[in-house]
Design goal:
Glycoprotein, Type 4 Pilin, 4-stranded antiparallel beta sheet, 4 strands, 132 residues
């Protein structure tokens, strides 16, 4: 019979099984993609900590040229961190005439991320990150 007749059935739409399969596939893709996305966002945001340590290095070199040693006094460095979103503070762990060690810890999205710079006159700067 033709489409106007009663004997011809037309299929319209999706079955419940087809919809469930699509939802399962989308869920699996999201379960894989979202953690990877968040990890990459955390890595990008942690670049702010590296930039802060770069500012510390520049300030320490200026201090060294005037005083012949590096400082462990944060206030003597004059670094403005008011514009930082994730890395709002730093610690100068040690400083002498040969080098210094500076560390910053993230907040918010970068909670648990720690970036450390070890600088010596002989070897230069070495950066390390944990918590990424």
């Amino acid at each position: 019979m033709d489409a106007k007749g009663m004997g011809c059935l037309t299929k319209k739409g999706f079955t419940l099984i087809e919809l469930l399969i699509v939802f399962i596939i989308v869920g699996l893709l999201a379960a894989i993609a979202i953690p990877i996305y968040r990890a990459n966002i955390k890595k990008v945001a942690s670049a702010e900590g590296t930039a802060l340590l770069g500012s510390i290095l520049t300030s320490q070199k200026a201090y060294y040229s005037e005083h012949g040693r590096y400082t462990s006094d944060k206030n003597a460095m004059g670094i403005d961190i008011s514009g930082n979103k994730y890395f709002r503070d730093f610690v100068l762990q040690s400083a002498d005439e040969n080098g210094f060690v500076a560390r910053t810890t993230g907040t918010g999205l970068c909670q648990g991320v720690e970036v450390t710079m070890e600088y010596t006159n002989a070897a230069g700067a070495t950066l390390s990150s944990t918590g990424l």
